[in-house]
Amino acid sequence: MNLQETVLMQLRDLILRGKFEPGQRLAEQQLAERLGASRTPVRAALVTLEQEGLVEANDTGKYLVRQYTPREVADAIAVRGHLEGMAARLVAEHGVSRQLQLDLQSCLDAGDRALAADPLTYESYAAYAAMNDRFHALILEASGNRALQRAIALNDKLPFAPASAMLPMQGSLAMDRDWMLYAHRQHHMLFAALKAGEGARAQALAVEHTEVAQMNLRQALERRAETERVMPAIRLVVGG
């Protein structure tokens, strides 16, 4: 699995869990040492995170963590769901080509293999994320609607809006795997609806699919709040 994908998943997870303060500089060398990687995949991951709206470059080209609100993330996820729902409906109504069926089935098979790993690892997450990105991109491309594609591309520049940016990585490994299995079952159901030409069902499934991302956002915020309550108490005890 591409090390850059693994590093990207780890950095997204750290930002989501509030391990970096808004405005904090993300130094390549320090991140590389923290993640046990070289600077090259870290640098590439930071470029992607800038495109996703999670970090921003200052006047000197240094990357800083971007300020964002939970409402901003939830709204962006909701918008993505409705846009992807429209894309799915268009594909179902237009008809699924033989090549698209083969490509989507290949994605489903890759997802099945990634989720067969027990326990899940960052490599498993990265493999699933790569599959997930391709699955969503194939449907969007097959919709044939350029305005819709541009709208999703614009929305993807908001924090945690892209398809794989909010994969469950906040709970226990068992809980994460259960949620990802659920999300992947939705992929299978969406594929079946597309092949059957069921536009309304395909649209509804695509919208519902984003609930996994909304769930992960809520869970991440709950865990961050719990950490913020516990840490001051720990510092007080340690400090005497």
UniProtKB/TrEMBL annotation:
CDD domains: WHTH_GntR. InterPro entries: GntR_C, TF_FadR/GntR_C, Tscrpt_reg_HTH_GntR, WH-like_DNA-bd_sf, WH_DNA-bd_sf. One of its GO terms (molecular function) is DNA binding. Coiled coil: none annotated. Keywords: DNA-binding, Transcription, Transcription regulation. Gene3D superfamilies: GntR ligand-binding domain-like, Winged helix-like DNA-binding domain superfamily/Winged helix DNA-binding domain. It holds the Pfam family GntR. Residues 1-68 form the HTH gntR-type domain. The keyword Transcription applies. This is GntR family transcriptional regulator. It comes from Variovorax terrae. The lineage of its organism: Bacteria, Pseudomonadati, Pseudomonadota, Betaproteobacteria, Burkholderiales.
